[in-house]
Design a protein that fits this description.
The protein is elongated, with a radius of gyration of 20 Å. The protein has 331 residues and is an alpha/beta fold. The longest helix has 14 residues. The chain has a five-stranded mixed β-sheet with strand order 9-8-10-6-11, sandwiched between helices. Strands 1-3-2 form a three-stranded mixed β-sheet. Strands 4-13-5 form a three-stranded antiparallel β-sheet. Helix 3 packs parallel to helix 4. It contains eleven helices and 13 strands.
């Protein structure tokens, strides 16, 4: 997907358990009607920001990048922003070639990608955490299954089953009865250009191979749409793409430990497919980023930007993480 913004067109993993306390405080504030980013610093515009900003990378982050671009443009009318979301693997080459200043990724860069960047510039790209995602395993809204273990997930999606389970072909093998007992499971997933594809392969399948029967989709939306129109469907996507037609399953390493993909469960490690979402930029160590890039990142990590994270269905950073991110840009 390609989106271009300019003023004339603009209308309007298990994570650190030590962060549970600030997240709980943020959740309490949200329940009381306070904006989700209330614990974060607000963004104050500065003068003299203009120019062109190109973003190439993750489809998972595409809608969120669009929200951020709209909010940023409302503050800086002399900025033009172009967004292209075809998969995380497109971000590193774009940063290396200089065709993008922002590289959104739903996974961390691979060592080979970092090495290629460093070979070109003599230093590593700068990694910025921008949101928290519960990578969800979705089923059709009418599917009665309560949850799954990670071994179940591996046995459904993988041909190599590195978690030790047996092949699961029907919903009855997961305990469903009646009309569901003999219903074949229908698999949906992302294509190999996707960071979500790589993350799911590494964490859920323990590096194993996908089954050939997985229907690979070019984007997160098409995965969810496929499941919503397929009663027997199951697939994976960022939690931000959840719709009324699908249901995100509680997951866990063991049956007695399955957990919803909530904000707190992502941070305390009880939800096994928690991850950060990232943007990468080209910043020479010891030098300040380009003012436009710096302000865009500052906006993302401020209250306004993190409120948009919640609007898009993902989970906001804690104040500690956002502060750490901005401090790292000064190094």
């Amino acid at each position: 997907m390609f989106v271009r913004f300019s003023r004339p067109l603009f209308a309007g993993l298990a994570l650190a358990a030590a962060l549970i306390a600030p997240v709980s405080a943020a959740d309490d504030a949200a329940a009381a009607g306070t904006p989700a980013g209330a614990a974060l610093q607000g963004y104050t515009p500065v003068s003299g920001v203009s120019g062109n900003l190109n973003s190439i990378g993750s489809d998972t982050l595409n809608n969120l990048m669009t929200f951020w671009a709209e909010g940023f443009l409302a503050l800086y009318p002399n900025v033009n922003i172009q967004i292209e979301g075809k998969g995380s693997s497109t971000a590193p080459p774009a940063l290396i070639e200089g065709t993008a200043q922002i590289g959104p990724m739903s996974r961390q860069m691979k060592s080979s990608e970092i090495d290629a960047f460093e070979k070109k510039y003599g230093y590593k790209p700068t990694e910025i955490r921008v949101a928290i995602d519960a990578l969800a395993v979705f089923v059709h809204k009418d599917n009665p299954i309560k949850g799954m273990t990670m071994q179940d997930v591996d046995s459904i999606f993988s041909s190599t089953r590195k978690r030790g389970g047996k092949a699961i072909e029907t919903w009855g093998q997961l305990g469903l009865t009646g009309e569901w007992a003999n219903r074949p499971i229908s698999l949906y997933g992302r294509n190999s250009a996707s960071g979500t594809y790589g993350f799911y392969k590494e964490i859920a399948l323990k590096g194993g191979d996908y089954r050939a029967t997985v229907k690979e989709q070019p984007g997160s939306s098409s995965v969810v749409q496929g499941i919503a129109s397929d009663l027997a469907g199951i697939g994976y996507s960022g939690i931000g793409y959840k719709t009324s037609g699908v249901r995100a399953l509680p997951l866990g390493e063991k049956t007695e430990a399955i957990a919803e993909g909530s904000h707190e469960n992502c941070l305390n490690g009880s939800y096994p497919l928690a991850r950060f979402l990232y943007v990468y930029i080209n910043k020479k160590p010891g030098a300040k980023p380009d003012p436009l890039i710096h302000e865009f990142v500052r906006y993302i990590n401020a209250q306004q930007g993190q409120d948009l994270v919640v609007k898009d269905g993902y989970y906001p950073l804690t104040a500690d993480i956002a502060t750490e991110t901005m401090d790292s840009l000064a190094k």
